[in-house]
Design brief:
By secondary structure, the chain is of the alpha+beta class. It is about 30% helix and about 35% strand. It has helices at about 25-35, 65-75, 105-115, 150-160; strands at about 10-15, 35-45, 55-60, 80-85, 90-100, 120-125, 135-145, 165-170. The radius of gyration is 19 Å and the shape is globular. Mean pLDDT is about 85; it is low at about 175.
Length: about 180
Amino acid sequence: MSDSTEEVRAYTVRLELVDRPGELLRALEPIAANGGNLLSIFHERGNVTPRGHIPVEVDLEATPNRFDDIVDAVRDEGINVIQAGAERYGEELTIVLIGHLVDTNLSDTLDRVEESSGASVRDLSLSAPEDSEGESSARIRLAAQRGETDAALDIVREVAAEKDLQVIEPLTAGDAP
């Protein structure tokens, strides 16, 4: 089966990078060179793996054959591939949280949603008042495993209720008028 008839799929690749200039670029070049399309990169330089390396999660689209070539090429570059091959995120949803987000530890809120739901925060936009007394709002784009958006929303609702935050949820297909 040729690439032109294969279905493009979303994949997540987890890497371990040495903390030196150019390593992220060196890990990403094989993706472009082998026809992959980057969707997102999660590179948290402040965290390290038990081996003292930087964990990086790359979401990309490719056909299955090209994906195998990409993983092989990344490994050929000497990059440690921790996990590859499974489609991880197939759906996205955007929610808005309103309330005392900063006072109730927004970072904790996001961590709990990610740890409990299998969803990943893809984008965050925070609007906070100039004074510390007012409420803030955050627009959060979550990527969820296919079929897991309801579970992700349940966790968001649970954490929001605990922290007295208001949740503005996305319309789902059955909700539209």
